[in-house]
Specification:
With 182 residues, this protein is α+β, with helices and mostly antiparallel strands. It has 4 helices and 8 strands.
């Protein structure tokens, strides 16, 4: 997930659970088949908020952000954290995340109120060539374009598909240390 400089709101479309250091892959609208692989701490928050059956996460929304101070093996490497979640109590939820073996910190997750308002079709059609050019020129990623659009309204599945078609095909690089580390 490439979210540097953006705080996208994602709608979860599928969750795959496997083995290894990052066993959960969260697929979302506009992911270009490159899922978010939440860290152990963020998985605990998702499970605490929405339950341990990841099938129940589908259709729910999360706002994500990049936190540069996330530690891995004692070094700051950065990672993706949850800013807010839909489908939780109105007052939000409080969790504790592990910083290191001796230290835990409170982590507050507010309710994400998802607007049902769709991105206006005429505005999208007019902006699509500009958005496509920005993606083709490498100025913005697909996720960044979607995050920018969601400031105006929720994209329809058809609009997301049009953006996915306009986005350049990114080479898939096999990397055990994907976008997020635990």
């Amino acid at each position: 997930v490439d979210i540097m400089g953006a705080e996208p709101i994602i709608r979860i479309r599928d969750v795959k659970v496997g083995q290894g250091e990052q066993p959960v892959a969260v697929y979302f609208d506009g992911d270009h088949n490159r899922p978010w692989k939440p860290s152990k701490g963020m998985r605990r928050i998702l499970a605490g908020a929405w339950g341990t059956d990841s099938a129940n996460w589908i259709g729910k929304h999360a706002q994500l952000y990049f936190e540069p101070t996330v530690l891995y093996a004692g070094k700051e490497v950065g990672g993706i954290r949850i800013r807010a979640l839909s489908d939780i109590p109105a007052q939000g939820m409080k969790f504790a995340i592990t910083i290191n073996r001796q230290k835990r910190e409170p982590f507050i997750v507010p309710l994400l109120e998802v607007k049902a308002q769709e991105y206006p079709a005429e505005r999208f059609d007019k902006a699509l060539p500009v958005m496509a050019k920005k993606m083709q020129d490498g100025e913005m990623t697909l996720q960044q374009v979607i995050a920018q659009c969601q400031k105006t309204g929720q994209l329809t599945a058809e609009q997301v598909a049009q953006l996915e078609q306009a986005a350049p095909v990114e080479p898939v690089v096999a990397n055990d240390n994907d976008d997020e580390v635990m």
